[in-house]
Amino acid sequence: MTYRITGHSRRDPSQYQSGDEKERALQNEPIGRFEQYLLAEGIADQTALDNVQAQVDEEIAAAVASAMAAPEPEPTDALEDLFVEETCPDEA
What we know:
Layout lengths: L18 H9 L2 H11 L5 H24 L23
């Protein structure tokens, strides 16, 4: 489990969380802590971590571009895969 540092949505300014609370959460944020561990133990250097981040950013940009270029779905697509018809083991 981890702390939700941001609001529930992009429109939620999360003003119900104090600045101190957010700061403590940021210090304990698992990805940042893991990055610090990798650096402290000499498992990775900053260049390697920067390269991983750049690769992730490229993959996200490619996925967004692919989604934006995809054709709009048909309205009936919203009704697909909503229900599963199951049979009882005795009926199979």
